[in-house]
Amino acid sequence: MTGEQAAPEEQATTEQRTTTEQRTVAGTGASAGTQAAGRPAAGPTVAAAVAATADGGTARAKAPEEDGDAAAPAPRVPDAERLRRWRLVLGGADGADGTGCALDGRDAAMDRTLEALYGGSGAGGAAGRGKGGSAAGQRSAGLGDSAPRVARWLGDIRTYFPTSVVQVMQRDAIDRLGLSTLLLEPEMLAAVEADVHLVGTLLSLNKAMPETTKDTARAVVRKVVEDLEKRLSSRTRATLNGALDRSARVSRPRHQDIDWNRTIRANLKNYLPEYRTVIPERLIGYGRAARGVKKDVILCIDQSGSMAASVVYASVFGAVLASMRSLATRLVVFDTAVVDLTDELDDPVDVLFGTQLGGGTDINRALAYCQSQITRPADTVVVLISDLYEGGIRDEMLGRVAAMKASGVQFVTLLALSDEGAPSYDREHAGALATLGAPAFACTPDLFPDVMAAAIERRQLPIPDGESHR
């Protein structure tokens, strides 16, 4: 590689825009530059999409090991194509990025959509895009405060980038350009690519939303909720129905329903050394859950602003659990006040619009209410979903958890119920709960059915490695 060809890559390490720093370049062609500079490759991100979408490719270059050949070399990208892609990643009108590469046609249109979000007024180049404006951090005026202009921009990014990248750019636009108020415009909502994060933003704006926008907002929320239900409901029902069946022990099981582990443990006294076997005088097996209610489930959800995604997922799971006849499900949301939304569980959209994201946190008050609703401690599972930043009385909160566990309640603490990665949480409170035998850990939506199944069967929770205060 010549010195001129290496220049854009060196500039990427020193002048990379904020987006590229947070979401490292990982696309065909661009990945070589970042890895040479010591940056690890990432998943489908804005920078990766710029590099890979530039020539009609996908937003993510396939890693060699995904084809079963870890030693397979990456295809060589021509030097001119490499410069073109770096120009799109770095930005920089009039050659300010250092590549000397001019764009036209589709590339120029793609660059304009990126400049509107990441470019700086008069800053240009990687520094302008990277820092959203001048050194003082002034935002770009590319999108302005016009809802129609933003709607057109949303349409443009869907034209040039895949859905996963569109959602990242939408969140960046809301954060960097202060577009939250524009989400109150019906035409804006109609153009947005709906996802869990957008639902969280809409819920936080719920009380300020004009009547003309509420119908459109509900339609956006309903679309996301229905997609989540399709993805999560079947596995949740199957997993929990199996757990309910296994939790109903019988002493005269059919052969296919014998629980061999429990049967062997119960008959160890009947071990015959000469035959090296156990005589199973007493069989223990799984029953079949009756149609009546077998378990009570209380979902206690922190609705402070930082828990937006968890509120969305918990509401969907609450509706799924409420549809199961063998479970009596109660859903409680709280900040400094406590609201019981159990009556709304037949429609998770109503549940979500019944929440009010933001405000403080009083976990102790919420647990006091949940404790008052417990009538069958040995058959009750309480799931607290909170980052544990308690604004109430800490010692009373811990005392209530200890009392519930002592009475036979299965108590589960989830620091988050989302796909957002490691959450922020109060480590001191998490450690105190772990001491009480209630380990606190983050949980993805896909893991939640297994966590609930383990709690119903009163066995060890499937805690992800490194995620728990135990």
Please provide a written account of the structure:
A seven-stranded mixed sheet has the order 7-6-5-8-9-10-11. It has helices at 3-15, 18-22, 30-36, 46-53, 79-90, 105-118, 125-130, 147-160, 163-177, 186-191, 196-204, 211-247, 260-266, 308-322, 348-353, 363-372, 394-406, 427-435, 448-457, and strands at 249-250, 271-272, 277-278, 285-286, 295-302, 327-334, 338-340, 380-385, 410-417, 440-443, 468-469. The longest helix has 37 residues, at 211-247. The two termini are 52 Å apart. 46% of the residues lie in helices and 10% in strands. The chain is of the alpha/beta class and 470 residues long. Helix 6 packs across helix 8, helix 12 (211-247) crosses helix 14 and helix 16 runs parallel beside helix 17 (394-406).
Q: Topology, please?
A:
Blueprint: H1 3-15, H2 18-22, H3 30-36, H4 46-53, H5 79-90, H6 105-118, H7 125-130, H8 147-160, H9 163-177, H10 186-191, H11 196-204, H12 211-247, E1 249-250, H13 260-266, E2 271-272, E3 277-278, E4 285-286, E5 295-302, H14 308-322, E6 327-334, E7 338-340, H15 348-353, H16 363-372, E8 380-385, H17 394-406, E9 410-417, H18 427-435, E10 440-443, H19 448-457, E11 468-469
Parallel strand pairs: 5-6, 5-8, 8-9, 9-10
Antiparallel strand pairs: 1-4, 2-3, 6-7, 10-11
Helix pairs in contact: 1-5, 4-5, 6-8, 11-12, 11-14, 12-14, 12-19, 16-17
